[in-house]
Amino acid sequence: MKAARSYLFVPASRPERIAKALASGADAVVVDLEDAVPPEAKATARAQLQAWLEGPQAAPVVLRINGCDTQEFGDDLALCRHPQVAAVMLPKAERPEDIARVADTGRPVLALVETAAAIDALRAIASAPGVQRLVFGSIDFQLDLGIDGEGEELLFFRSQIVLASRLARLQPPVDGVSTALDDEALLRADSERARRLGFGAKLCIHPRQVAAVNAAFTPDAQAVQWAQRVLQAAADAGGAAVALDGRMIDKPVILRAQDILARAGQQTPTPPKETNP
Predict the structure, then answer these.
(1) Which residue from 43, 127, 260, 273 puts its CA 20 to 30 A from 222's CA?
(2) Residue 274: helix, strand or coil by DSSP?
(3) DSSP character string of 53-109
């Protein structure tokens, strides 16, 4: 299944916004019971969301629940078992045993890496059963570590998340939000940086961010054309060594071409095995 490129947040206390979010073009909508809902409103928001999930307009959504150290956690977990909850986003994911409690709902877990403790336990988190993806909660992470800056200040930590995801054979991780709603150039730059570092998606906090994020994580027409030519040349060669545009096509080039077509949502045929020279 093609991995989501964009995750758009909607407050659970505003279920009337979910339909608009679903129509925004976002690959996944995250209904938020945590930061977007004040403590005194969480029970009401949960009830409103359950009513929406059971209504005629319901569709699969991701549910961001409250942390396992909160009194809301148990009630949130019960709601996670609803058939319209496609996945669960766990904030402050730090321990495999906490992830196991969420995975027991039978839903894939999106583990939010938001603390120093999470980075310290990153590989254990990534390899915990049930985890589908790591998600970088960059804003809370900066607060936890006292980091002032979104760029090179977080490069080491972003790279660690990408590495842990690959070692655990997870989907490429999800980068954090860009808070500037009216700066499309900055959003594009943030998204492109994440893609270059090995992320496969990004969190969005407004529908107008979705198009730019989707574009950043979708190969453009030129890349798709190159990938198609590579795989066609390899197939035509029948496994023999072949060059394209003056460059040899070897296994890493073929794998890159297949990855591009997969991210573009196209078929990725496997060329014949290489023959020994």
Answers:
(1) 273
(2) coil
(3) HTSTT---EEEE---TTSTTHHHHHHHHTSTTEEEEEETT---HHHHHHHHTTTS-E
Long-range contacts of residues 67-72, Cβ cutoff 8 Å, at least 24 apart: 67/34, 67/91, 67/92, 68/92, 68/98, 68/101, 68/102, 72/33, 72/42, 72/43, 72/46
Give me Rg for the CA atoms of the chain: 20
Q: Left if phi > 0, otherwise alpha if psi is -120 to 50, otherwise beta: which for 101? A: alpha
- What is the tens place of the pLDDT at every residue in 55-88? 998 999 999 999 999 999 999 999 999 999 999 9
Residue that wins the pLDDT comparison between 240 and 186: 186
Q: Are 183 and 139 in contact (CB under 8 A)?
A: no
Q: What is the pLDDT of residues 172-199, one digit of tens each?
A: 999 999 998 889 999 999 999 999 999 9
* Partners of 61 in the β-ladder: 85
